[in-house]
Specification:
With about 200 residues, this protein is mainly α. It has one domain. It is about 80% helix and about 0% strand. α5 runs parallel beside α8. The protein is rod-shaped and about 100 Å long. The termini are far apart. About 25% of the residues are buried.
């Protein structure tokens, strides 16, 4: 594999001070991806037994341990408030999206940080003139270009991680949101039916 041939210690060393913000971006991206992946697991959003009970029209007992459970509890506490239930469901979706927007910032900003390394490295390379030849010093020129390319490579790697995580989490949120919409409609329909039969 191509990345296995890269000396990452040297890459980080040559990236200089930009290695610190890029490293921080990578740590934040990995943390957000793993934290959100854990928070978006099925048991925390749509427990299978509760979802099945709602689909079958059975009496479902909500709870605070899952998004669907909290929505069921809200509907039980506020019968007849369909708009309120839909607004509460939107709040649950917003909770699922918490932190994911930072991945957008990371995968946009990390390559820009790498470009800062590229530009500053090239500026340094062309500013070092050998007084004898009146040309850029070859040794310092290659060191500066190495710095420039190292920062760019790190920025692109961080961006790829954040972009992949953002895509995965976005699909999970869309999947859960679609299922919550269907289940909420079933819950509200059952409540309307119960209210009309009691009256």
């Amino acid at each position: 594999m191509l990345l296995a041939l890269v000396d990452w210690t040297r890459i980080v060393r040559e990236a200089g001070f930009l290695a610190y913000p890029l490293g921080l971006c990578s740590i934040c991206a990995v943390y957000i991806i793993f934290e959100r992946a854990f928070a978006l697991r099925d048991a925390a959003i749509l427990p299978a037994d509760l979802a099945e009970a709602v689909l079958q029209g059975k009496t479902a007992t909500g709870g605070a341990h899952s998004a669907l459970g909290r929505i069921v509890s809200f509907v039980e506490r506020h019968p007849g408030d369909a708009e309120g239930a839909k607004s509460y469901a939107r709040l649950e979706v917003m909770k699922m999206e918490r932190g994911v927007s930072y991945l957008d910032t990371i995968y946009t900003g990390a390559p820009l940080l790498g470009l800062i390394g590229t530009v500053s490295g090239l500026l340094a390379a062309f500013n070092v003139i050998d007084p004898e030849t009146k040309m850029p010093d070859p040794i310092k020129f290659t060191e500066s270009v190495g710095y420039a390319l190292s920062a760019t490579l790190m920025g692109l790697c961080v961006a790829i991680i954040a972009l992949a995580g953002n895509g995965y989490l976005g699909r999970r949120i869309d999947h859960h949101t679609a299922r919550l919409d269907v289940l909420l409609e079933r819950i509200l329909a059952r409540k309307v039916k119960e209210t009309s039969s009691n009256s």
